[in-house]
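re the bet — no i am not wrong, look at it urself. input seq straight from the record:
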Amino acid sequence: LFEMCEKISGIGWNYNVQTRADAVNEETLLKMKAAGFSNLAFGSESFNDEILEDVVMKRQTSKIVLEGALLARKLGLDPILTFIAGLPGESKESMLRTVRILRQSGFTEATFFPLVVFRGTPLYDTFAEGKTQGEIEAARFDDYSEEYCYLSEDFPTKEALISWAGYLNSEIRKDIDGERVDDMAGSDVGHLLAG
C-alpha cells in the first residue's frame, strides 16, 4: 500500500476507498491522505457486536470500527460508515442505538442500506424458506434486480424495510443541537458502545 501511495501521490487526483477499520492506523492513513485519498468508507454493517460476530461474521468489533473512523476524521480524511438495516436478529432498537452512537460521535456521513440477499447464498435460503414463489418475487428489490429484500417479522414487506432504512438515514443527518463533536479520536469510545 505504501509503495502504491508513493507512486500516485504526485498525480493530483482524489481517491475514495472502502476498507476495514482494523486495516488502518495513523501511519497508513497519513500516507493515504498524502497520496490523495479523501474519503474512506468503512463497511460497519452494525454496531451490535453479537450481530457482527454471529450473522455478519465481520471479525472486528464495533469499537474498532468507531475508533478507525474517528482517527480518519481526526487526520483530515472523510470517513463514511455503511450499515445494513434488517439483519437477522437485530432489533429496531439496536439499529436506533447505532444511530445514537453515530450522532454522539458527530457522524452524519453514514448510510443504512436495506438487507438484500442473492440466490445461492445461505441467507437467501433462510429468507426463502417457507415462502411461495410469489412471496419471493414480491421481495425482489426492483424489476431488473436479482436482489431480494430480506423480509422478517419486523419488515414484512420490501417497502417496510426500505422505508425503515430511509428513516434511519434521516435520523443520522439531523442537526446535533447545532454542534458537531469533531475530535473524539484517541479517546475511549467504550462508553458510547456500552448498553
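see?? Residues 65 and 131 are 36 Å apart (CA to CA). told u. also The chain has nine helices and six strands. so pay up
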